Give the backbone structure.
Amino acid sequence: MGHTEWAYGLAKDLLETTLPRRWAHTQGVAEQGERLASILGADSDLLIAACLLHDIGYAPDLVNTGMHQLDGARYLRDVAKADERLCRLVAYHSCADNEARQRDLLDVLVKEFDQERADLARALTYCDMTTGPDGRHLDVLDRLAEIHSRYGPEHVVSRSITDATPCIVSSVRSVEAALADVGKADAG
Ligand SMILES: [Fe+2]
């Protein structure tokens, strides 16, 4: 069984009933992951699995620190015994080091998890940050605005997203450029 099939079952079990909107978002993020097969090749399976698992840390039973990236990655490592690369991608998804800093958890995050390859981390950030809470796809700037309006200016997530904006936007734009290059090569 590939990573994707396993990840789909696990994410569905954790999110579908308790957090249906988060599950809709997750499925939209995974659709974006499927679109990146042309630039990721053999790593596509890993990336799609990470898309499916990136938000499991929101599942009520998994909440511990309140930082969903860290809570999800710990569950994958300690309970699900997931591939180390999946744990790393989830731990740092969408430039999560910024939220870790805001929550005073950066030392913990860095001590427990290494970073995964930068192109894969950017790919996951692209998928998450071009998918809205209902699973629909949108531009990264609209996605950032949506997060700010959902949480409000004082929330730790909004402050984290402000700090993470350069990292998020550059990740998304670099993946868009890679997709455009592949599109040109296909057309030419
Ligand atoms: Fe997400």
The pocket of fe (ii) ion is lined by residues 25, 29, 54-55, 128 (CB under 6 Å).
